[in-house]
Write a structure and sequence with these properties.
This protein is mainly β. The protein has strands at about 1-10, 20-25, 30-40, 55, 65-70, 75-80, 85-90, 100, 110-115, 115-125, 135-145, 145-150, 170.
């Protein structure tokens, strides 16, 4: 297991969220776990729990994201909502050739929200990481009043852009 810290994009400061760290690695045999931990979540807005299933537009409110750098400039995007919904897409190049991706097994998503700490835990088949060396971990955070912040291990521009290949810097554990 390893832990990577996310930082907010400087143009979109959070209201109360102070820190986001993602602990990720192999668990229970053939699964990978990603646990997004948010500290200072007193104003955090979470979408209502709807249960598992694919849905589009999850990035428009609080969600965790994983980008995997695939061979030949391709990449895959996963969105994980505290609602229990998820999305996955393949891209042929930077923001081009988008198509829905069907993972080997639907992600399992668990949430836990306390007074000051909130966690979003995701389980994916380890096979989703085959032949992947680098990834990007990101989060969109919506707080009371509609204030949004965009978190990543690295930001590579004046505007948040999780698709930017310069953000795919984290070695996959």
């Amino acid at each position: 297991m390893k832990t990577d810290r996310l930082i907010p994009h400087p143009a979109f400061a959070p209201a109360k969220v102070q820190k986001i760290a993602v602990r990720w690695g192999r668990v229970r045999g053939q699964e990978m776990m990603l646990r997004f931990r948010l500290d200072g979540c007193g104003a955090l807005l979470l979408p209502p729990r709807t249960g598992p299933g694919r849905a589009d537009g999850l990035w428009q409110t609080t969600c965790g994201e994983l980008f995997l750098a695939l061979p030949d400039g391709r990449y895959r995007e996963f969105n994980f909502s505290p609602s229990g919904q998820w999305a996955a897409y393949d891209f042929h190049g930077y923001r081009t050739g988008m198509s829905e991706y069907q993972p080997a097994c639907a992600p399992r998503i668990e949430t836990d929200q306390g007074l000051s700490v909130s966690t979003l835990t995701v389980f994916l088949p380890e096979s989703e990481f085959a032949d992947v060396q680098f990834a990007a971990l990101c989060a969109v955070i919506e707080e009371q009043g509609g204030q949004k912040s965009y978190w990543a291990a690295r930001h590579a521009g004046e505007k948040p852009d999780f698709h930017n290949p310069a953000c795919f810097i984290l070695p996959v554990p």
